[in-house]
Write a structure and sequence with these properties.
The complex is a heterodimer of chains A (about 120) and B (about 110).
Chain A: E1 3-7, E2 10-12, E3 18-25, E4 32-39, E5 45-51, E6 58-60, E7 68-73, E8 78-83, E9 92-102, E10 109-112, E11 116-120
Chain B: E1 4-7, E2 10-13, E3 19-25, E4 33-38, E5 45-49, E6 53-54, E7 62-67, E8 70-75, E9 85-90, E10 97-98, E11 102-106
Parallel strand pairs in B: 2-11
Antiparallel strand pairs in B: 1-3, 3-8, 4-5, 4-9, 5-6, 7-8, 9-10, 9-11
The chains are: A mainly beta (about 120), B mainly beta (about 110).
Chain lengths: ~120, ~110
C-alpha cells in the first residue's frame, strides 16, 4: 500500500548533526513533491521543508534555514533531512508527508509517515 | 508569514451532535486551506483540501467551507472515533503554516 516510513531519529547533543530518512513505497515517488513537518512534544505542527519531485526546488522554514538540508534519491525512493547545528528547540517528532500534486507542489499533504523522534539534549 | 488562528482551543460535544470548528487566516489564502485530524500517537490525516473537498475515504459527515480568511470544518453527527485534535493549514505561499489546533473532546 501507499506509505512513507521515517527512520534515523534519536538522542543527540546540542550542536551535533543527524540525518533522517523517509522511505516511500506503493506509489511513484519520483513524481511527487515531499515535505518534512515536525511536532514538538505536546505542541502543534510546524512545516519544515519541501523538495520538488525532481529535487530542483527546495524551500525551508526560517527556523531551520541554513542548518537543515532536504534532499532526495529517486532511484532509492527515499527522502532525507540533514540536520546540522541542532538545538534543544529542534526536539520534535519529524514526519515526512507527500504533496497531493503530481509533477508540481503547492497543495495539501495527503500521505504521512508515522514519524521519527529527535531529542536534542545535553 | 500568514498566521492561522483556530477557535475554540477545546470543544466539548456529545456523540451524535454537530461540531463546528473555525479557522481564520491573517490574510487571504483563497481556497488553499486543508484540515487534518490527529489522534494521540498517530500522524495527522488529511480530511479536507481546497477548503471544501473531502480527501479520499473521508466520511460525508465531514464538510469544509469558507474562502479568503474565514474557514469552517463541520462534523455533522459525531462518532466516537472523531474525538481528536484538528488542525487547519494554508498552502497559499511559503512558509506553509498550521493553526494551533482544536481539541474535540467528549462532553
Amino acid at each position: 500500500q501507499v506509505q512513507l516510513v521515517e527512520s534515523g531519529g534519536g538522542v543527540v547533543q546540542p550542536g551535533t548533526s543527524l540525518r533522517l530518512s523517509c522511505a516511500a513505497s506503493g506509489f511513484t515517488f519520483s513524481t511527487y513533491a515531499v515535505h518534512w513537518v515536525r511536532q514538538a512534544p505536546g505542541k502543534g505542527l510546524e512545516w519544515v521543508a519541501l523538495i520538488s519531485y525532481d529535487g530542483s526546488n527546495k524551500y525551508y522554514a526560517d527556523s531551520v534555514k541554513g542548518r537543515f538540508t532536504i534532499s532526495r534519491d529517486n532511484s532509492k525512493n527515499t527522502l532525507y533531512l540533514q540536520m546540522n547545528s541542532l538545538r534543544a528547540e529542534d526536539t520534535a517528532v519529524y514526519y515526512c508527508a507527500r504533496d497531493r500534486f503530481r509533477y508540481s507542489y503547492g497543495d495539501a499533504f495527503d500521505i504521512w509517515g508515522q514519524g521519527t523522534m529527535v531529542t536534542v539534549s545535553s | 508569514e500568514i498566521v492561522m488562528t483556530q477557535s475554540p482551543a477545546t470543544l466539548s460535544v456529545s456523540p451524535g451532535e454537530r461540531a463546528t470548528l473555525s479557522c481564520r487566516a491573517s490574510q487571504s489564502v483563497s481556497s488553499n486551506l486543508a484540515w487534518y485530524q490527529q489522534k494521540p500517537g498517530q500522524a495527522p490525516r488529511l480530511l479536507i483540501y481546497g477548503a471544501s473537498t473531502r480527501a479520499t475515504g473521508i466520511p460525508a459527515r465531514f464538510s469544509g467551507s469558507g474562502s479568503g480568511t474565514e474557514f469552517t470544518l463541520t462534523i455533522s453527527s459525531l462518532q466516537s472515533e472523531d474525538f481528536a485534535v484538528y488542525y487547519c493549514q494554508h498552502y497559499y505561499n511559503w512558509p506553509y503554516t498550521f493553526g494551533q489546533g482544536t481539541k474535540l473532546q467528549i462532553k
